[in-house]
Records
---
Amino acid sequence: MTNILELPEDCLAQILSMTSPIDVVGSSALVSKLFLSVSNSDIVWAGFLPADCEDIVSRSSGSIPPNIFGSKKDIFVYLCRFPMLLENNTEVLDYIE
């Protein structure tokens, strides 16, 4: 194997999940359509979120429709745009970063 693009998609997703959100977004579209596709997978974005991220969002004070998020990336973007204060008085962003 001489080309990273020959790796299976789940391997590429694992590799991307070990980088940062900025790296994933910034490089994925520049490398190939395959990287762009993999960069949007839940496997990649789940690594950037707390394990209980859906529970955190459901406990928010705002009225968020239960099925508004189509992906883990959507949850990540939402939590970055609208930080939430948790019970222990820390922001959820402290757990993301």
---
Amino acid sequence: MVKSGDLKDESLLTSAFQGQDVVVLMPPLPQLVSLQEPAVRAAAKAGVPYILPAEFGPDPFASKLIEENQLLQDKKKIRDLIEELGVSSWISVAVGPFLDMNIKSGLWGIDVENRKATIWTGAVGKVNASSVAQTGQASAAVLSLPGQDLSRYKNKAFYVPSFHLTQKELLQAFQKATGTADQDWEIDYQDVNDALKDCNDKIQQKDATAPFVKFFLAHFREGSGGDFESKVDASEVKKLHEIGLQKEAVDDVLKRTVS
């Protein structure tokens, strides 16, 4: 069934959501709140048990990341609204930032096309990440869990990242994928605190890219919450693999990205 119309029309959305077990939301980032709020209200009116809001990314409970990032604050608004309405439950599929899509835009500090990299010194933490395709498959696997298993994740996160690596390890993985070495790259170094100050200055100047650069910078700071490997429950992830979720290798993802 396909219904078309204004995505802010709660009546239309309520009609579309009738009888559904779950609503999955993934609006464009600039409309993260404006398009999700009416959908969440409509899902509540329709009695939808579960909502997967646009939570395909970082740990939703990483308080330091949330404090520093407007995008994550907006995501929290949606989770809070779902809980406030008290009808549906949200589930976050926590995979970390998208590795492949964000590499292409240089947001990891690595410009593959021009073989340039800026290593943020002092940002030595590891970050969990996944590919876009794996995120979709992981979400489908989570929703394929038996009802009793799925109910354990009401207003919680299912942690199922693919990768766990530092920025330097990511650069090394790209060098392996491209058959290059340090001497083939222009590598600069910038203190992470200086880089964050630059981002904040640019944000004040309404630079559109700066908030996203800051988002990745903050992830690599130890203790920020970008590393949630300790929250991954191997026995729960195994259930997803038994359903059919395949593991992905960083080498394969990066080779596809640069091909």
